[in-house]
Design brief:
The chain has three helices and four strands; from the N terminus they run E-H-E-E-E-H-H. The chain is an alpha+beta fold and about 110 residues long. The strands form two sheets. Strands 1-4 form a two-stranded antiparallel sheet.
Length: about 110
């Protein structure tokens, strides 16, 4: 099993989760993070660190977020690994409450 970064991360891209990951399985895209499913050890340390609740256990991923399981796997293969916390984008707070952001995902 793996954890999945879902739609809530788009345009928020907080990296608090990265700092607690013991296996460095996070990958950084232009405006969100993803988790590599083959590297995740299902430790659950990242989930409570996300200030926008965008990280889910695979078996608790909401139905309307299922496509993010495949997106995490796909994008983790091409985006660079991130292992240290970085500042969130300046406008992250403005995007935190917006629920529908799929169309804004930058690859």
């Amino acid at each position: 099993m793996t954890f999945v970064v879902a739609e809530g991360c788009i345009k928020c891209k907080h990296t608090d989760c990265v700092e607690v990951c013991p296996v460095d399985c996070f990958y950084e895209g232009p405006n969100m993070l993803v988790i590599h499913p083959d590297e995740c050890i299902d430790c659950a340390l990242c989930e409570p660190e996300c200030p926008v609740d965008a990280i889910f256990s695979e078996d608790e991923l909401p139905d309307d977020q299922q496509e993010f399981l495949e997106l995490n796997a796909e994008l983790a293969e091409v985006w660079p690994n991130i292992t240290e916390i970085k500042p969130a984008p300046d406008d992250a707070k403005e995007w935190a409450e917006i629920k529908v952001k799929r169309q804004l995902l930058e690859r």
